[in-house]
Structure formats: C-alpha cells, structure tokens
C-alpha cells in the first residue's frame, strides 16, 4: 500500500474569456489520483472538507480507487488556488491556505491512517510549508520505521511564503530537510532555482551536480537518496543515480493545453513503473542500469505528456500510458 500526505485544493482555472473553472487539484492529491489510475493501491492521509468541494473530492478519489474509507472529514473549508495561465499554458498561482481542511487534524490522527505495511510514502508541495513540515517529517520517520520508502516532490511555491525573507528561508530549509530524508526525489528546473542552486539543463555535468547533492547525502553519516528525477520543461527530463544518468527530450507532436498536474503525473508514472518492474526497493533503485532508467523515464514522461494535452489534471491509466509509450513517434 502506498500513502500520500499533502494538500487537496481546488484550482480555479482562468479561461481566455475571463471565466474561472473549479477543478479538483493540489499537487499531492493529483499524485494520489494519478497513482491510483496507474493501478496501484494508495491511501490519502489528510482530512477532506465537509463543504461541496470536499464532497467532490471524496467521490472523485473513490471513483479513482483511492483508499479513503472511512473518509476523514473536517468542517474547515477546502483550500483554493486561483490559477492564471501564462505563456504556453504555464500556470501562475495565488493560494488561499489559512484554516483549511487538509491542514486540519493532529499528528496522531495522521499516523493512525498511515498503513502499517506502507510500501512508499509520497509527500511534497505545500505540506512542507512551515509549520506543517514538522508533521510531514514525523510521518516520514514513521514510514521509515515501518520499512517504507519515501518519495518527495519539492514543488516549491514561493508565493505561499509571501515576501518575508525569513519565511522564504524557512520554507527552503524545510524542503531541504524533507529532501534529505527521501529515497526518490523529483525536482523541476523551477524548484532548483527556488532552492538557490545552479542548473544548466543542457549540461549533463550540471544535472549530475544537482542530483549528487541528494545522492551523496547532506552529511557523511546521513541518509542518501537512491534516485533523482529532474524535469526540465521544454528540455525534457532526466533520471540520475549514483552510477548513471539518462535523459530524454520532450516527445514531438505534443499539443499542450496546460501543464497543471504534469509533474504529479510524471512522479506517479515513475513510481508505478518501478513498482510494476519490482524495482521499488532501495537496493534495487541503486542498482538500476541505463536500460531500466530509460524505460522508467519513458513511462513517466508519457504519463505527463498525456496529462498536458487535457484541461486541468486528468491523469492517464497504466494501459493508456503503455499504449502511448508504444506508439511510433511521427
């Protein structure tokens, strides 16, 4: 059983005519739905609101096969993100996150919902914003104690931290703490910039330098990541282990509607491929060769590519993704 800890929020997506369409979203909730559609058992850990949007979340997660029963409900409202689409469909966010449902509840309640036989926990995004990161780090520790792996998608949204430099610094530090506990890490080129690290997407040495910040561990005696995924926008994506780097370009012929949820579908596709291939163990991840890394990256990028051709986050199934991978490129 997989588990996911983080935000479930409604994206109010702007249309060219000025209308706003509400779409169920939130990075971690998107990931949860995407994993379930890839055919893996997963439990969403956070509470959902009793408001109308919360009811839609409960039904939508059930429809996708996510383990939420009995649902954990909060009387606080669902959090919101107002999404304005910029050039090439890239979303720009304004968040409303105070006193909201997915931040409700105690650590003890979260730990009670964490599966005893958890295979992997995924966390990231707004769950790492102080002071919430303390709960996230405690759930990560509990996952490790139960023998599970940890997946972290940094997915920094600096706008949530506001303009206070101290708050921004605390957010970056919290994300780095979580990354230092991860087995599988996903960083976008925007995440790398927000962390203050240098990345040249066209230079493999630069990609390795960023990845080895995590693969080598923050301290000699500390935990080390086994696999780092770097998503590079129009330059494609890469997977890096201590021994190997593979990268692939963006597939030709992709018509981008918007990129909402693309990274979440990428990470879900990556973990799904690793699970189906029997490679979702720390020792197996460290031993992945170029062929396996290429196959995993193709599947992850295919899941993201299918999603970006749809409005909002609409994750593909495992069979859809495999069929897309097998299609000849025109």
Automatic annotation (TrEMBL):
Gene3D superfamilies: 3.40.1190.20. InterPro entries: Carboh/pur_kinase_PfkB_CS, PfkB_Carbo_kinase, PfkB_dom, Ribokinase-like. GO terms for molecular function: ATP binding; kinase activity. Pfam families: PfkB (PF00294). Residues 5-317 form the Carbohydrate kinase PfkB domain. Keywords: ATP-binding, Kinase, Nucleotide-binding, Transferase. It comes from the Bacteria. Belongs to the carbohydrate kinase PfkB family. This is Carbohydrate kinase. It comes from Aquabacterium lacunae.
